[in-house]
Amino acid sequence: MVLLITNINKATENLGIFIFPMSAVTTLAPILGFEGHPLPYALGSHVLISITAYSIMGLAAAQAALYAVQERRFQKRQLTTLFKNLPPLQVMEKTLIQMVLIGFIFLSFALLSGVFFLEDIFAQHLVHKTFFAILAWLTYGLLLFGHFRFGWRGQKAAYYILWAYFLLILSYIGTEAILILL
Amino acid sequence: MVISTLAAIISCLLYLFTTRLLWQRFKQDRSPQSEQTFNRSNLLILAIAAATFHLFSFSHNLIIENTISFNLGMGL
Asked: Which domain does B53 fall in, by range?
């Protein structure tokens, strides 16, 4: 869906070569019979917004990795068929920033809506999650500020996005791991 | 249940077909003639149809009796 939205004003459909097979696999997940966890509307909306933010940032991280490789190969003149068919670097960068911007908005809403469910941060074991999620949010914010204010792009922007996503992953998986270890 | 399973299968097939079309485009040479033979709007229509069926496959399970019911395995 994000790919289709970014495709409105520029030809980014070739990125679908990575996204469509993944989507095909996820569509079959309900048939395998995973059971859902019923949540009240308010908490459910918070989780839904968070999952949307994670998904968009995940796509952005994958694209950032692709963009970094594409740029390096372009400089070394080692473009394979796959990289030759990807959108041009400028379009890739524009799409990447758009995706981060959309994800940043969702992440901001996820953090803001999370505040309403915070009663005792220590008792609810949410310290790690909150800390890393805020750190990821700040990193994304810094990247967007740097991009629009100082023109950060290329490898630098890609690394910021990858580090920010690593922090975001830590906020979820890291918390689960710490809770299991404790 | 049957409708959502059907929607999931149709969506999966459409995604795979779209991937195949894209792969064929990748293998073609980038000459102007080959670009003309490839119909971009067809690809977009297929992708939109796949995304719509994908949405149908999990949307009716999303809201059950005043609760939002989901997990990552729902195809979200």
From this structure: 2-74
For chain B, the domain total comes to 1
| Residue closest to A30 by CA, chosen among B16, B47, B62, B63 | B62
Residue A120 lies in a domain: yes
Whether ipTM tops 0.85, in short, is no
Res A157 pLDDT > 60 = yes
Q: Which residues of A touch B (CB under 8 A)?
A: 1, 3-4, 7, 11, 13-14, 16-17, 20-21, 23-32, 34-41, 44-45, 47-48, 51, 55, 81-82, 84-85
Confidence of residue A80 (pLDDT cuts 50, 70, 90): confident
Domain range for residue A66? 41-181
- Give the mean pLDDT of B4-18: 89
The pTM score is 0.80
Question: Is the CB of A29 less than 8 angstroms away from the CB of B22?
Answer: no
